[in-house]
Amino acid sequence: MTARDIEPPLAEPDVGTRDDTARPASAKRRWWTLWAVSAAQLLVVLDGTIVNIALPSAQSALGMSDASRQWAITAYALAFGGLLLIGGRISGSLGHRRTFVIGLSGFAASSALGGAAVNPEMLFGARALQGAFAAALAPAGLSLLTTTFTEPRERGRAFGVFAAVGAAGSALGLVTGGLLTEYASWRWCLYINVPVALIAVLGTTFVPPDRPLRGDGRLDIPGALLSAAGFAAVAYAFNEAEPLGWGSPRVLSLMAAGVLLLAGFAVVEVRASRPLLPIRLLLHRARAGALLSITLMFVAMFGFYLFMSYYTQTVLGYSPVQAGLTLIINALAALLGSTFIAGKLHGRVAPAALILPGLIAAAVGMFILTRLTPQSTDVLPLHLVPALVLTGVGLGCVIPPTAGLATAGVTGHDIGAASAAYNASQQLGAALGTALLNTIAAGAAATYPASARNATSTAASVHGYTTALTVGFGILLVAACVTAPLIMTRTARGTRRRGQDERS
């Protein structure tokens, strides 16, 4: 391996071709691609939170035990995270559009199956199927965007919309889940996916066709098994850390097994002739920086979402729907950051000029919430709104350039692999953030009464939340410091130079 293999290119190269003689028609079809991919991204993110709100009603209706109900969430997360790299490889072999349609159709069918569940096992199986089809859908969608939008300004707008939909999905899931559960049925939290998926499938008829890549089509079976088992073990360990604690033998065993399996996966990929995830993709400095940035951003942000859900309902007394509506502020701010800031500046400034300020803005937003006390007044205008706006704008500024860097300059099977690695980074970050910051909050709240006189349960809860958010604040600052040397590379200079050429 040479230095050229691990250094980023001078600029994000085109990964597709463009026929300027047919520009109006091709432009229209490109934007249809964006809307179809955005609808699919909404489904994938939405299902990470919408079922959480419906779970108590589903538990009562299906007779789930307290010990087993978590599998309605865990089954989706394990299948999605564990199969992402395989989904990326399949996307390259079958063709991104074909894989995208298969993923959408399967997601719709498994959602309908889950909505019609008559027992817990049927619901858990349907959720696992949703995760499996999402693992094919997500990398195929990002690959379609990468290969369809090659002109810098259009790519910036496309990634901006894609990021806005992803950032808004979690908040929208909470609101939609609350409304559907309260006024319809918990089953509609799954049925709602069907019409959205079918509309996206219809939209794919306008998506320019792509061809499967040439080759023998063989799957790296050892790599596939090791990656699926490794990612699933790590994700399950994060999930179990919430109720059991990080020192639990089960958690430690799962973490050790996951790390060993992923280490074995890395060894296999170095030697494989057709690796599932070519290691050279991770040795690319700018791409590694983008993956690290988005992982740490999701660690902090999903802890933040957890805080917002708990604090607004347990301390401020909001209903689930009101708590979800509060998060809409964050979603709108993310829309602003991703479309009007990151989208418009894509190709005109270096990616680092968006990623680093985005991380810092989100960190400042979390720092505002660390100043909360049980006696704080005017919490919504003085604390929550500024924090929601800053974290939303920060997230919106980070997702588009990291998605662009993660998939820039790759061709062939590497496009699907890079897209899958980016989605896997988000999933692992979200799982780790939820488990880590929830554990920190619970531990701080439990020890608070011993260190404070006449401590109330509300004071202990607020102390736990602010302690966890202080850790989230630190994670974002560390992310900015660690990733800066990786993303401030020749890619940044080449991108800036290209933007100057376009304006001249």
From TrEMBL:
Transmembrane segments: 32-55, 67-87, 99-118, 124-146, 158-179, 185-207, 219-238, 250-268, 289-311, 323-342, 349-372, 384-407, 428-448, 468-488
Every Major facilitator superfamily (MFS) profile domain range: 33-492
Record keywords, A-Z: Antibiotic resistance, Cell membrane, Membrane, Transmembrane, Transmembrane helix, Transport
Region Disordered: start-end pairs: 1-22
UniProt xrefs under InterPro entries: MFS, MFS_dom, MFS_trans_sf
Pfam families: MFS_1
Highest taxon of the lineage: Bacteria
Compartments reported by the entry: Cell membrane
Bilayer topology annotation: Multi-pass membrane protein
Family matches, as PANTHER family: BLR6921 PROTEIN, MAJOR FACILITATOR SUPERFAMILY MULTIDRUG TRANSPORTER MFSC
UniProt-recorded name of the protein: MFS transporter
Organism: Streptomyces bugieae
